[in-house]
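Lecture 7 notes: from sequence to structure.
We start with the chain below.
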Amino acid sequence: MRFDTFSRRQLEALSWWCDDSPHRERDAVICDGAVRSGKTLCMSLSFALWSMERFSGQSFALCGKTVTSLRRNLVTPLTEALAEAGVACEHKVSQSLLILRRGLRQNRYYLFGGRDGRAAALIQGVTLAGVLLDEVALMPRSFVEQALARCSVAGSKFWFSCNPDHPGHWFHREWIKEAERKNALYLHFSLEDNPSLSPEIAGRYKALYTGVFHERYVLGHWVTAHGAVYPMFCEARHVVDAAPACARHVISCDYGTVNPSSFGLWGCAEGVWIRLREYYHDSRKEGVQRTDAEYADALEALHCSDDARQPDLDRFVEEVRVGPCARGLRRFASVYLDSLLTYGNAVGEIVPTLRGDGVYALYNARLTDVRVKRGGTPLEVVFCAAADGAAFAPVRRPELILFTALNPPAGELLGTPLLRSLPFVTGILLNILGATGRNFERMANLRYAVTYKPGPTGVDKAYAKEIATSIADQWGQAMSAAGKGVIKDFVAVGDVDIKVIDADCQMMDTQVPVRQMLEQIVAKLGVPPFMLGLHWSSTERMSTQQADILTSELMSYQQLLSGVLCRVCDTFLHLNGWGCKSSITWDEINLQDEVESANAQLLSARARRLECGCGCQKPEGETEQ
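Predicted C-alpha cells for the same chain:
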C-alpha cells in the first residue's frame, strides 16, 4: 500500500498526539464527515503509531459494529500499511487478537463488535491503554461507555470515527457538541480531504445521493430524515436552545416492554407545549429488557429531576460572568460582602440574556449609582438609577436588583458599616501619627544658633556688629557648601558659640495613646490583635470566647449572603425553564483548638459515666488510663 500524499485534515488526524502538536494534551479525537473521506485509515494508522510510540506491553481495543466488518474495513488495510512500515503484525483470528511488534516494543489489540447492548459484557473487566471505536454512531451507548470506562492506564486516550446520523443521536449530543468540554479534538472530513479520490469518483458520489442522504454522506452533516414521521417538522422552528419558564407541566407515557418505552416531560409556555426532557429505552436495540419497577423509577426521576440540573447549576456558579472581566459566583459574593461590611450596604444586579432565557452576567453596582427609597408603605422599597446623566428614576425590573443592608436602625432602609463607631477613634490615631511625622521631619532638618560674644577690648565692642555679620556669612557659606557635597571649614576668632536649636527637647512618647486607640479598634472588630498584624505578645492566641464570637459573626454573614446567592441561582433556574429551587450548604466554621475540643469531649464523657454510676457501661471509644 502506497501513500502519495495526505490532505491537511488527514495530517492533523495522524499527528495530533505528537509532542509538537498544539492538541497533544487532548484526551480524545473525533473524526466524522463524508463517506470515503479517508478518516478510517488515517485514524487507524494514527492509533497504531501512537500506541506503539507511547506504550509497550499494554492492551488496546479496536471496536466496530461487528468483528467481521472490523477485520474487513480496518484491520486488513491497517496491517498491510504497518507491514510496509516495518511493524510486525500477528493476527490471531480465533482469539480476535492482533499483536504488533516493533523493535523491543509489543502491544496487544483486542477486536470487539458493538452490535447491541449485550456486547458491553464482552469488554467488561479488561484494562486498556486506549480504544478506537470505528463507526461509533452504529454502536449502543452502553457498549461505548463500557469501553471508555476500561481505559484506566495513565496517558490513555479515546479515538472515535463515524458517519453522520440524525442530530438527536446521543453521540452527536454528548460528544460532538460537547467536544471542548470533554477535552476532545473534533475533526470534520469532506470528500476533498481524501486526495486519493479522483475528481471523477468524487463527482460520482456527489451525484449518487439526494436529499438527507446527500447531506449526510456527501456533505457530512448531522441532519434529520424529513418526512419520515412528521412531515411538518422543521428544526429551526420546532427546536429551541433553552426552554422558557413554564406555568404547567405534564408527563406523556408510551409504555412498552418488548417495544420501546418513551416518557416525556412537557411544559406549557404562552400556549405552546415544549418537550423539556425525555426517557427512551428500546429493549430490542439495547438488548436489555427492563422491569416495571425500573420504568417506574425512570418515570419518577423524570418528574423529580432536580439532581439532573445540578451539573448545569455547578457550571453556572463557576463560569457566570461578573462585571466586564471576572467570572464565578464566588467573585461576585466577595465584592458584594466587601461593600456590605465597608459601607453597610451592597447592591448588585442580575443581567439576563437578550432573549430572557438565562443569566448573562452579574454586576456589582456602586452605591452612588443607585438610590434606595421608601415606597407607598413602610414595607415597600423602590430602587432608582440614573442613565446617561439623567435624573434618578425607578428601575424597570426591580426583581433583578440585589440589595442588602447591614444592621439597619429601626425604621431605616440603609444599613450601618462595620466600623461605624470608629471614625472618632481613627481620627485621634491619625492625628497622633501625623504629629509624630511632623516632629520627625522637624528634627531631621537641623537649625543652628550661632552666638558671638565680644571681647573686653574696645575694638571688639566697637565692631561687634560687623564681626557678627561676617561670622554669619561665613557660617552660611559653609552650610550651603555642605548641601552641595563640598566640605568647607568654618574658622572663627573670638568667643563664638554654635548650638542646635531644640537639641534638649525630647520626642513625645506615643506608644501608650496609640495602643489605646488600637485596642478600641480590636474591641470593635472582636478579633485577636495578631489577625490585624499587631504582635503585642509572642505567645498570643485566640481564646475560646473570641473564637465563639468570631464564629457567630461569620455565620451571620453567611445568612446574609445565602439569601442573595439563592436568588441568583433560582433566577438562573427559572429563566432556563426549570422549576427546581436551589439551596446553599456552607462549610462548617471551626476556630476552636482541636486538642482542647477533644479534651472537652473526653471530660464530658467521663462526667456522663460518673452520672450513670459505676454499673453503667463505658462510653464507646473510651479506655481506662
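Points to note: The chain has a mean pLDDT of 81. The first helix runs from residue 8 to 15.
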